[in-house]
Amino acid sequence: xxxxxxxxxxxxxxxxxxxxxxxxxxxxxxxxxxxxxxxxxxxxxxxxxxxxxxxxxxxxxxxxxxxxxxxxxxxxxxxxxxxxxxxxxxxxxxxxxxxxxxxxxxxxxxxxxxxxxxxxxxxxxxxxxxxxxxxxxxxxxxxxxxxxxxxxxxxxxxxxxxxxxxxxxxxxxxxxxxxxxxxxxxxxxxxxxxxxxxxxxxxxxxxxxxxxxxxxxxxxxxxxxxxxxxxxxxxxxxxxxxxxxxxxxxxxxxxxxxxxxxxxxxxxxxxxxxxxxxxxxxxxxxxxxxxxxxxxxxxxxxxxxxxxxxxxxxxxxxxxxxxxxxxxxxxxxxxxxxxxxxxxxxxxxxxxxxxxxxxxxxxxxxxxxxxxxxxxxxxxxxxxxxxxxxxxxxxxxxxxxxxxxxxxxxxxxxxxxxxxxxxxxxxxxxxxxxxxxxxxxxxxxxxxxxxxxxxxxxxxxxxxxxxxxxxxxxxxxxxxxxxxxxxxxxxxxxxxxxxxxxxxxxxxxxxxxxxxxxxxxxxxxxxxxxxxxxxxxxxxxxxxxxxxxxxxxx
Length: 554
Known about the structure:
Layout: H1 10-21, E1 28-31, H2 41-56, E2 60-65, H3 75-87, E3 96-98, H4 103-115, E4 119-122, H5 126-132, H6 150-161, E5 171-174, E6 189-193, E7 207-209, H7 211-222, E8 226-230, H8 237-246, E9 254-258, E10 261-263, H9 270-279, H10 293-299, H11 303-313, E11 320-322, H12 324-335, E12 341-342, E13 344-345, E14 348-353, E15 362-367, E16 377-382, E17 385-389, E18 409-412, E19 417-425, E20 431-439, E21 456-457, E22 460-461, E23 466-473, E24 498-505, E25 517-520, E26 524-528, E27 539-544
Parallel strand pairs: 1-2, 2-3, 8-9, 10-11, 12-25, 14-20, 18-21, 23-27
Antiparallel strand pairs: 4-5, 5-6, 6-7, 13-24, 14-17, 15-16, 17-22, 18-19, 19-20, 23-24, 25-26, 26-27
Helix pairs in contact: 7-8, 11-12
């Protein structure tokens, strides 16, 4: 419709005004992760927001690694982040950058600040700097080294670069205002000495820039127009602007903050995930119980489902939490019409059809997805012995139970009507075999006389069934206790977060390869594990169950 009103978020409104006022003539955004761990679902919002804005305005999107802290950064994390961003569909079109590529330019900016009297070398220890900084209600105290001459500061900073001082012995600080109401402006540290090997520059440098100094320089060098970051950097914006102004960049970028994406009852903190990995509670940063992007991908989430989730969350300035059920809703909605519905029995008992010809196997046609005829159909084997779910037979059923019990008739999905005639149980009462009679006139699941049955159950033919490992997941944390222990801050780990079973599955499912996903009738959506599945021996991760009480607000 021509007059349709399009709702725009506050970032789009700012960009619209900047373009209208001629502040910028193009739009360039970036996603700037520090390569010190795997990305999680919260990062997906930032990736898709920055990429989406660049695409909306026919601009450019950069991927840049903020690798200014060699203590925690690894090439492994660089590679995983590249894979995650690419998988989400954000195309940086070859514009891949590293903060460490700009170390020489950052050093030159620091020298410029010293020459302008805007930076000085300080000998205070980290604890003393903290003490001198003051509080929210009291101004800070000036460092006794604040008034060193430009010449002395240039000499000392050069000596820092040459490696003449030990770690923590000297720092370079901005000279701004120790009485500023903004703590970030009280002569922040710009450079520190750190004799560490860097993943990208090796041992070339022994001084490294601080994030708040490096980040605005990186943006300015790359011509970023709008530096989109999360809300905790709002108080850092005056320092960001100070750096690009004092460095005299002609087209300074504009920092804009938005609210982070918080999910309820999940673990996103890198130190907590690192501990879960080191303790062996999970099998890596991509364990399907986690919400790292790699873990969600391995579990079977799709880029489209995460894109939809981020879209539903929206963009705002107010922090809020989103129920994990919304993420599950998005993957259900994405898969329900795209994936075939196959039969797998996760807790099997045998069903013997006593009047079916022994030794005979026939093949029945089954639709791959009744809601999407375009997915076609397949042929599935049927014979005198089947596997059914244990919960689909009861000796003493409750009222309104619609599955198998003595004397009742049910439909075997896509097959025949069967009537239960008996069962075999162990001494402890555990049912092992259920006996029944089938009606050969009900082939395809309908009776020619028009009679109806109340229940339909799924099944797998025994002689052709494959056996597959199936993993059933619960939340990695105990939701009743909360994510964190209030006394010591540790995680309240759920000991039942993973259950592994051996299931009987349709023969076609034995051909599954990593990332192939399906709906298992009545059991949920499942994905073949990329790491542990082998040819002819798939391992399936349950992505999500079929039903949820979650509903989108109207």
